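Exercise 7.
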Amino acid sequence: MTAPDTKRLHAMRRIADLRRQLKQVEELRLARVMREEADIDEKCAAVIATLNDDTPLHGLFAGHMATRLRRLTERKTLLEPLKAQQIAAVMTEARHTRFAETIIGRLEAGIAADEEKRQLESLIEGALARRRHASLA
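Solution. The predicted structure, written as tokens, is:
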């Protein structure tokens, strides 16, 4: 195992760890947006249910509830592009993470092949040295 390959493998492992952390951050951001969207859906359902009620003071609050419902739907409309952006960010970080892990796999395979080659060369040199030593004796 050569020093540059080992350094490169160590650096790629650090990069892969960083990519995993970045992916987690993006997933958390997406989860927050999705929770907010679900919360807005619940609030809209509650406002609609309240508007459908036949209570004596219904007409008194109907305008306020309609305004609230409009603001909630506007907020949800604003969340849609943010949600799409977060989904794209999660996918991008996942792709970068997979790429880093692929590079790590290739480096590890190369290092293992180099080590195996070095061991085989050592074994062959040892066998040749014993053969030369036996022929001299």
